[in-house]
Write a structure and sequence with these properties.
321 residues; six-stranded parallel β-sheet
Length: 321
Amino acid sequence: MPRKKIALIGGGQIGGVLAQLAASRQLGDVVMFDIVEDLPQGKTLDVAEAARVDGFDANVTGTNDYKDINGADLVIITAGLPRKPGMSRDDLLTTNAKIMKSVAENVKQYAPNSIVIIISNPLDAMVTLFKKITGFPANRVLGQAGVLDSSRFSTFIAWELGVSVKDINAMVLGGHGDTMVPIVRYANINGIPVMEQLERKYNDKAKAKEVMKNLVERTKMAGGEVVKLLKTGSAFYSPASSAIAMAESILFDEKRVLPVCAYLNGEFGINGYYVGVPAVLGSNGVEKVIEFELDSEERTLLDNSVSAVKTLVADMERLGF
């Protein structure tokens, strides 16, 4: 059976880690596209030269020509610029929307049957624009944010309770930004409620709530925390690992339930917008959105997050995209 073809659009820090992880985990042959001459060729050559050491046979190549992504089964998009000092929100939105428009047109031409995972920010707007330009079915266009945000939330909980993060189950819903919604009520340690363990640790319900509030806030600001520490860049390993988890579930038809930026048709009472929700990922992309009951506080928080997504999309349309 021929290997799957994975196209990576964007040769930055995230793109480089994506290439290394996709190849070393034998997900398929990898082609990296970037507009910067020689950049994707250099990054993929570096990855390819580790094949003997890491024990993989996948082909890993770089290109500056979109035609080389022809027939890709899976496309992961990281193309776009980070917000720079002095750049307004509209400036960032306009710049990255122009980039995404070009990417979408070329993916539509050369990989019309692909499933597409988008990491580029502002995420909710970029996923919306890609689907609009390509006309791809909603199940084949999704965004990566919830897997990363949920991993961050789980990590902070594990550190607080002194347990393995592998045993933490916690999920973040909503838009990718300050309005994201960590679902505290269902966070657990192999089924044991996290809040119960915090209350036992501190023997004080009020203190437990305060600690959890801080964990939630750190989760919301986690990306900024990394940026502040790095000073010259943003997170790249954890976003790439999160996208690879989604890619594995799709390419191997694993049917994992992962929080992703998916297009909603009435689920959670939301119509016509991309929002972070738990979904079954398989060979057809987003195969099902998993709904569950929200209490009044969770509902209010999710509605607030959806409002932010709607504002972002409206701003993009106002700017002509």
